[in-house]
Amino acid sequence: MPSLREVPKILHCARNMWELSVYDSALMEALKMGSQVNSWSDDRLDELSRRTERGFGEVKGEVKELSRRTDKGFDEVKGEIKDLSRRTDKSFDEVKGEIKDLSRRTDKGFEEVKGEIKDLSRRTDEGFKEVRQELKHSNRTMIGVGGTVVAAIIGSGILG
Q1: Per-chain mean pLDDT for the chain
Q2: What percent of the chain has pLDDT over 70?
Q3: Looking at the 3D structure of the chain, how many domains does it have?
Q4: 109 located within any domain
Q5: Is the distance from CB of 21 to CB of 46 less than 8 angstroms?
Q6: Is 26 in contact with 7 (CB distance < 8 Å)?
Q7: Structural domain of residue 92, as residue ranges?
Q8: Around Cβ 54, how many Cβ atoms within 10 Å?
Q9: 112 part of a folded domain
């Protein structure tokens, strides 16, 4: 228990209201009793001790109640955080599902495009094959026509 001389030090060192509230009741009792008497006797000190103990008992009860309310508040916040976490997980799961669905549809689309490209490639190859055959046929025809023209020229004597 601090003496009256230590009160200024305690007040100066108190960094927050909590520290002040712990000593508040005891200091008030000491100040009340100090103003009532000029000297301290054992009876007066015993009375101060009882009052101080009562004051600390009240503070202890207040601290317990504050602790209980604080714990309750933290439990409520924890519950809200868990609920938010659950909802967030659910949202992420929904987004994952949508992404998987989009990926599946995209893969299906790519498969369809690949099939169309293969079909187009096949048809293009067939078209080029037909063009090559036509060119071969045209070359043969041109060679035949050219040979006939040369034979006609030679046979007509134009060259000679």
Answers
A1: 81
A2: 74
A3: 1
A4: no
A5: no
A6: no
A7: 4-96
A8: 13
A9: no
